[in-house]
Amino acid sequence: MNWNELGLKMGLEIHQQLNTKTKLFCPCRAELVDEKFDVEIKRSLRPTQSELGQIDRAALQESLRKLKFNYEAYDYHTCLVETDDEPPCDINQEALEISMIIATLLNMNIVDEFHTMRKQAIDGSNTGGYQRTGLVATDGYLDTPHGKVTIENLCLEEDAGKIVASEDKGESGEGYTHFRLDRLGIPLLEITTDPSIYHPEHVREVAYAIGQILRSTNVKRGIGTIRQDLNISIAKGARCEIKGVQNLDLMPQIVENEVTRQLNLIDIKEELIKRNAQVLDEIHNLNPIFENSSSKIISQAESVKGIVLKGFDGLIGKEVQPGRRFGTEIASYAKKRGVQGIFHTDELPAYGITSAELKDMKEYLNVDENDAIIIVAHNEEVATSALEEVVRRAKMAFDGVVEETRKSLDDGNTEYMRPLPTSSRMYLETDVSSFKIKEESIKNIKNNLPELPDVKKERIITEYNLSEDLAKQLVRREKATDFEAIVADVEVDPTIVGSILAYDLREIKREGHNIDNITLDKFIAIFKLLADRKVSKDALNKIIIGVANDSKEDIEELAKKLNLMVLDEDSVYNIIKEIVKNNSAMVEERKMGAMGPLMGISMKQLKGKADGKLVNKILKEEIQKLI
Asked: What is the distance, to the nearest Å, from the Cα of residue 507 to the centroid of all Cα atoms in its chain?
């Protein structure tokens, strides 16, 4: 595709949890809880007007779903702030300081006063129906290989509650969506670029560069701690926000698929206009047509209803993204009202609906060959509500592309979530006072900025003569700081320290050992045993496993208990001499080719109590003597 001709524009929104001790507006710990909840709170939410008396369209659409929410809280890990039963505390100063550090690294202008706003969200993720957020900095930039990108805003806000289950409404419409409140209120940073990204590869570069800056500061790590949203539009299309883009390598594919979708929707629009198509509002009762239907879905439903789309024949089944059709787009809207899906005439007969039933339905509705019919089977209220959404979405087809918030899928496609929010969702938070940011604080931050990961990698390659891959892994796995502390304190080969921290620890953890129990002081003590030649390099991993299982034991005493203290050179010599003697036939037959097998036998017998280099030296000498 020619991205310039298409007028492709993109922007990024990155949400990153901060690694603070407490939450943003209360003293609860900022961490997830792996325990059974203590309290349940049931609620429904509704939209409110902005300061100008307007209701946000996204909030309005969420309210029409008539969802009910069940919040799971804890006696000791959550408080009344999370349940919206008492006013919030003052802003978390630690979170604000981390935000200012990141803003400075992004070349941004920090505001002189932090004001908290309410951002309306009635999808259940916030108990009060809004998220508290505030502007920290504006007007920054990043230099990338594809050019400079403007960082528009950096906001500090509270993270949302975590959805843990969603019940099917069924015929009664009483299903609840369950949220856990341990995540609600964890400090979350929102970084927004302007739409100055014009190439699919460029967006990946920008996301990587921002990620590098975040990793240099005190932010949380792991799945779910960072979420990336991608805004995409083309000249003839509209801005769509793609939520939850986790895989940076998938970003270019997501962009291409979204552009393809918008181009196909534009083609559908032009074809509809050419056909003089029309969406009829009337919702028809189709129960008489399907009274004796063999379709399992149809026969189990209380009500079968349908609408007529004049001139839409063949377009409902048109592919708009790889493996996804225009009918899928329409169905996504209908699903928001509680149905599992829709039927349409571009795919019928199928799903147990026969050719005879299809013919009867067309005659009953008096449709032409260029018309399409969409069917929904559910209870009376849900079926009607779902088809109202279908009518609304079908009418949008005459606009081509509509502004939407969409969910990122694992295959690079996207799915409708809700309308794009408007400025009407924001209003002032009156329960939190403003906070003045002093110039002295900003200067102090500028004078103590952290080292960026790529810069740190290049420095430790130079200073410690490490390979690029080893340095990269130390930085990536956040072991570089411990590495430098150990090497500064212990006279030991930096490559040995680096390899164990970057590679071996990962394997030891995979085996189920809790290496998180091992403090930096313990690691220093372990490597001092090596420096003092009390243990061999080959014994280090066994000692680390021992410490992981018993972190209170003295390191040297543990090595003795595990029988890992090195033998003196004479003892090693006698053991290897005996091994060569017992395998003299192999040596006579293979000559120096016996080195490999005998080395394995020697190391196995010595069990890490001798350095590999010493064993190799003695073994080589003994084989040469015998030859």
From this structure: 24
How far apart, in whole angstroms, are the C-alpha atoms of residue 135 and residue 444? 20
Q: How far, in Å, CA of 336 to CA of 612, rounded? A: 65
Contact 122, 62 (CB under 8 A): yes
For residue 39, the SS3 value is strand
Q: Point out which residues pair with 158 in neighbouring strands.
A: 187
Show the low-confidence residues of the chain (pLDDT under 70): 49-53, 58-59, 62-63, 168-174, 423-424, 607-608
Give every CB contact of residue 6 below 8 A, 6+ residues apart in sequence.
234, 235, 259, 263
- Residues 267/349, Cβ–Cβ less than 8 Å: no
Distance (Å, whole) CA 285 – CA 110: 60
- Exposed (0-12), middle (13-18) or buried (19+): which is 24, by Cβ within 10 Å? buried
What percent of the chain is helix, strand and coil (3-state, nearest 5)? 40, 20, 35
Per-residue tokens: 144: 């990338």
Judge contact between 398 and 271, C-beta under 8 A.
Answer: no
Give the integer Cα–Cα distance in Å for 390 and 603: 72
Q: In this structure, what token pair is assigned to residue 613?
A: 């280099």
Whether pTM > 0.85 for this model: the answer is no
Please give the C-alpha separations between residue 66 and each of 8, 55, 176, 492, in angstroms, as whole numbers: 37, 16, 10, 65
Q: Is 43 left (phi over 0), alpha (psi -120 to 50) or beta?
A: beta
Q: Which residues contact 393 (CB under 8 A, 6 or more apart)?
A: 329, 330, 333, 334
Burial of 606 (0-12, 13-18, 19+ CB in 10 A): buried
Q: CB–CB of 55/422 below 8 Å?
A: no
Per-residue pLDDT tens over the stretch 2-49 = 999 999 999 999 999 999 999 999 999 999 998 999 999 998 877 776
Paired strand residues for 577: none
